[in-house]
């Protein structure tokens, strides 16, 4: 843990030394021109850190820390509170370097992630409902046993993450801007240091979900400040406060901080999956979501790198996220229409949906609680369309034929449904 009375401002020398340490222990991920660039006014490149062995850039920082402090860590062991990326990364590199790792995961952690950590010889402890609960437990164990508490704001972790910035400049020397998702801020701080040293004209932006704006609040206050953690699709960015070392490194040097709406994070997940053929989680695509939302008009026509930080999403959550993304894009429509309660009612509706080239995904009829005439039933329908324009045309057609039709806009948290 860092000295509470001191902060460490990361230097490029730290990052360069880390690059030498982890050279043979991590994957040098590709920097790909995004196919979505052809549909936008931006020249977008994706730094695909989701292609690391355990699916996130966290590996770089963990590897550097484990190598730099190998003897100490082998003696004491490491305890890691995490909701995903740090846990699986520490388990993997701990096994390869002979370091005993204990991961502390919240109750809501997907069972598959806990199983993967266990398969990599890590001790798995499930504790608490939130990351904060798991962190408090890990701190207690650290004090009682002397196990080293892995902190994402650790200078060695930060230095390892800075190799992402070094690789970006090496792979695309003409880069104009880099957008980095922000959790504790360690990745953003490290990439900022590397880019400022290797190409001082390169802009560096941070991006976070607007529901948990811890870095934006810190920048406004001039120091790290706690914010409530609200559930959202960018779960991997959900920390209540940014790191002191990270903020000290960033302060006064960051070009812009961006707050991204959750609906655009959902859209970005769909875009990366369908257009780029990559699986990434909500945290990982936050940088691209900022571009899709139109938050960076000044970068039009410029070579912009979006760091895709991770792809650790379990199958069930990915399925839910896809449906929410389709809804956010306007490609899944839910509506209710009154139909004649006879054989032609549903037949006519099905024909209209087919004629409009939409795909019916769900249909449920309601007869018991209908308050209109006994000859009417209501059909609750979900259809999939090609894009937003197709959706609008479909809605116009349904409203023309069924003036009483009601369309619903699904809230991303599934807490309410607006008519």
UniProtKB/TrEMBL annotation:
GO terms for biological process: isoleucine biosynthetic process; L-serine catabolic process; L-threonine catabolic process. The lineage of its organism: Eukaryota, Metazoa, Ecdysozoa, Arthropoda, Hexapoda. Its cofactor is pyridoxal 5'-phosphate. It holds the Pfam family PALP. Keywords: Lyase, Pyridoxal phosphate. It comes from Parnassius mnemosyne. GO terms for molecular function: L-serine ammonia-lyase activity; threonine deaminase activity. This is L-serine deaminase. Residues 22-310 form the Tryptophan synthase beta chain-like PALP domain.
């Amino acid at each position: 843990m860092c000295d509470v009375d001191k902060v460490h401002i990361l230097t490029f020398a730290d990052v360069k030394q880390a690059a030498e340490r982890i050279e043979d222990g991590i994957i040098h991920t590709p920097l790909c021109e995004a196919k979505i660039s052809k549909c936008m006014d931006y020249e977008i490149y994706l730094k695909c850190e989701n292609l690391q062995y355990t699916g996130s850039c966290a590996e770089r920082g963990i590897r550097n820390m484990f190598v730099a402090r190998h003897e100490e860590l082998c003696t004491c062991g490491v305890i890691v509170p995490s909701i995903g990326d740090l846990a699986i990364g520490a388990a993997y590199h701990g096994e390869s370097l002979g370091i005993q790792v204990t991961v502390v995961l919240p109750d809501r952690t997907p069972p598959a992630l806990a199983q993967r950590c266990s398969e990599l010889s890590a001790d798995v402890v499930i504790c608490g409902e939130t990351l904060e609960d798991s962190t408090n437990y890990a701190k207690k164990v650290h004090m009682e046993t002397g196990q080293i508490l892995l902190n994402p704001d650790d200078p060695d972790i930060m230095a390892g993450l800075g190799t992402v910035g070094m690789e970006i400049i090496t792979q695309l020397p003409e880069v104009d801007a880099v957008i980095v998702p922000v959790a504790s801020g360690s990745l953003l701080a490290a990439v900022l240091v590397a880019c400022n040293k290797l190409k001082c004209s390169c802009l560096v932006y941070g991006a976070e979900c607007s529901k948990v704006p811890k870095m934006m609040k810190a920048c406004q206050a001039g120091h790290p400040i706690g914010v409530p953690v609200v559930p959202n699709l960018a779960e991997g960015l959900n920390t209540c406060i940014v790191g002191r070392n990270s903020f000290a490194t960033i302060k006064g040097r960051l070009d812009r901080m961006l707050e991204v709406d959750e609906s655009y994070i959902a859209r970005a997940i769909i875009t990366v999956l369908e257009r780029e053929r990559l699986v990434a989680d909500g945290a990982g695509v936050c940088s691209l979501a900022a571009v899709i939302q139109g938050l960076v008009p000044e970068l039009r026509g410029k070579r912009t790198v979006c760091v895709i930080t991770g792809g650790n999403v379990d199958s069930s959550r990915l399925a839910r996220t896809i449906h929410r993304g389709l809804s956010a894009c306007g490609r899944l429509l839910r509506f209710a229409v009154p139909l004649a309660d006879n054989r032609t009612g549903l037949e006519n509706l099905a024909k209209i949906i087919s004629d409009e080239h939409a795909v019916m995904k769900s249909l449920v009829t309601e007869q018991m609680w209908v308050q209109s005439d006994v000859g009417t039933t209501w059909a609750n329908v979900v259809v999939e369309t090609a894009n937003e324009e197709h959706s609008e045309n479909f809605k116009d057609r349904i409203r023309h034929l069924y003036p009483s039709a009601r369309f619903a806009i699904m809230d991303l948290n599934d807490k309410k449904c607006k008519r």
